[in-house]
Amino acid sequence: MTAELLSVRGLHAFYGESHILHGLDFNVNHAEVVTLLGRNGAGRTTTLRALLGLVGKRSGSVTINGREAISLSTHKIARLGVGYCPEERGVYSSLSTEENLLLPPPVSPGGMSLEEIYGMFPNLKERGATQGTRLSGGEQQMLAVARILRTGAKLLLLDEISEGLAPVIVQALSRTIHTLRQKGYTIVMAEQNFRFAAPLADRFYVMEHGRIVQNFTAAELPGKRAQLHEFLGV
User: Cβ atoms within 10 A of the Cβ of 195, count?
Assistant: First the structure.
């Protein structure tokens, strides 16, 4: 877990005339879980979207597996092995659970088979013929995460996957993140739920007003409680 998979330097992002990200610098190593923490409006979601080029304008450097991606279009960035699970989930109401799973095309070799995915998310197998939007909120979130595992992406960008879910579902998603990390996936999570992120992440970046204001490792977490309370109110 020493080689960098993602390197971000001087990343600025804009929506129209609004300057949202102000020169972010951070890195993520292979098979590492990194969490972006911050209050609403801190810029966490925009950071994930900027990595994929899903903002109005961006500048700086985003290197993925050694390749500069700042000038690439979104579909080409995805083919560098990047999977994105947006906060709004993007489940198609006109498709069944299994059809939603089968929809995304492969972006690189080594995607999980349906059997592997159903082993990780048994609820989805039971609801395979159910219309996507008739799933519970927790099942839709599982579907949104499971869908990108088929594509072969090894860098997963997960936006607020625990938000608004029952504790039992949050626990299941926590086990999923742990399993994916063991399988060698690299994960960047944007999270406001510190209690969900704390036992999962190797490193944390705290954001405020589109800037990174703190960064620390899991081992340093006990000594950062007071500062986290100040930034996050946790």
Answer: 11
Partners of residue 212 on adjacent β-strands: 207
pTM of the model: 0.94
Looking at the chain, the whole-number percentage of residues with pLDDT higher than 90 is: 83
What burial letters (b/e) apply to 4-30, b meaning 16+ CB within 10 Å?
ebbbbeebbbbeeeeebbeebebebbb
Helix (H, G, I), strand (E, B) or coil at 196: helix
Residues 6+ apart with CB under 8 A from 29: 1, 2, 3, 4, 5, 186
- pLDDT per position as a tens digit, 79-106: 999 999 998 888 998 999 999 999 988 9
Structure tokens at 122: 């048994």
What pLDDT was estimated at residue 23?
97
What's the helix, strand, coil split of the chain in %, to 5?
A: 35, 30, 35
Distance CA 44, CA 205 (A): 10
Cβ-in-10-Å burial (0-12, 13-18, 19+) of 37 comes to buried
